[in-house]
Amino acid sequence: MKHIFIINPHAGKRDQTSRIYEMADHLREAHGLTCACMLTDRPGGAADMARKLAETGEELRLYACGGDGTISEVANGIAGFSNAAMTAIPTGTGNDFLKNFGPDMEKFQDAENLWAGEVFPLDLIACNGRLCLTIACNGIDARIADSVHQYGNSPLLHGRNSYLASVAVNFLFKPIGRHWKVWLDDEALEDDFALVSMCNGRYYGGGSMPVPEARMNDGVLHTVLIKNIPKATFARLFAPYSAGEYRKLPQELIRVSTARQVRIQAEEDIVTCLDGECFRSREVVMGLADKRLRFFGPKGCSPNATAR
Questions:
Q1: CATH topology for 130-288?
Q2: Whole-number Cα distances in Å, 112 to 7, 39, 166, 231
Q3: Which segments of the chain are extended strands (E)?
Q4: Which of 140, 149, 213, 300 is deepest in the core (most CB within 10 A)?
Q5: Nearest 5°: phi and psi at 29?
Q6: Are residues 223 and 156 in contact, defined by beta-carbon separation less than 8 angstroms?
Q7: Residue that wins the pLDDT comparison between 206 and 217
Q8: What pLDDT, in 10s, does the model give residues 156-165?
Q9: What are the two backbone dihedrals, phi and then psi, of residue 115, each rounded to the nearest 5 degrees?
Q10: Beta pairing partners, 136
């Protein structure tokens, strides 16, 4: 079996490439493992690397070393391959995916805690030909994610702070709602929506938790729909929404569905964000992927550690 570290040297505030190389050297020397390191050189590069490695048919354990985008790329590359499994070593800023593991998140910092971990399957969201690990969001939350990177470049803003800065800008200077047609399986809705987001995991945006009961391996996806709301209402409700208290919000404004397929159509571009990576389209189709991801982590860890 080969252990391959796929490293994004541009993730986070500082290059941690040398630290990852030291981990690989340690596994090689301490446990006699076959280890190698590969550096990504462009967006999408980690997915291509992971897919080509999996296509060799060799038994692989891949370590995605970066932020949520790098983790998502490696997952897209190996999903459905029975010979490849992955884990994550966080070197990004938000690292929302690993928050699902609760207290064990810190153990992912060191490959010594990972290499012998048991493999278990994770569900994935299929969205417009791409795969998403945690949350596929459309609307104000996706537009916030789309602009958050420019604030993350500031030395004063990073992680949760850059996300909150983007929230403020999008809230103060831009309209919240968009007019969409939405289908929840066969149920058709047409209205002005602030967001329509499908959740497999529980965290995005530096720690916001829209649906706390979402579990990453139960075959059920939760979609939260929020109608257009006045800005004053948005400001008042953002904190409880972010804290996973959607049941306390006005029921005429918010709905959570377990529809198997959700489709959105619009006459203008919809901004969609998958694990922090954004794109635009006039139609979005989301549902449970037919592929699952083979994942490994620290002994005894659970991707549902923080679910409630």
A1: Tumour Suppressor Smad4 (2.60.200)
A2: 17, 20, 37, 48
A3: 2-7, 34-39, 60-66, 84-90, 119-122, 125-127, 130-132, 135-139, 178-184, 187-199, 222-227, 254-257, 261-274, 277-288, 293-296
A4: 140
A5: -80, -40
A6: no
A7: 217
A8: 445 556 666 6
A9: -60, -30
A10: 198, 274
Which of 58-62, 92-96, 170-174, 213-217 is predicted least confidently?
170-174
The residue ranges of DSSP E strands in 212-276, in sequence order, are 222-227, 254-257, 261-274
Calculate the alpha carbon distances from 23 to 5, 28, 278 in Å.
9, 9, 32
Q: Taking the domains of the chain in order of start, what are their residue ranges?
A: 2-123+292-296, 130-288
Mean pLDDT of the chain: 92
Give the separation between CA 298 and CA 110, rounded to whole angstroms.
Answer: 10
Residue with tokens 């048919």: 57
Backbone dihedral angles phi then psi of residue 259, each to the nearest 5 degrees: -55, 145
Burial class (CB in 10 A: 0-12, 13-18, 19+), 61: buried
Round to whole Å and give the CA distance between 21 and 148.
30
**Whole-model pTM over 0.70:** yes
Q: Which residues pair with 193 in a beta bridge?
A: 178, 227
CATH code given to domain 2-123+292-296: 3.40.50.10330
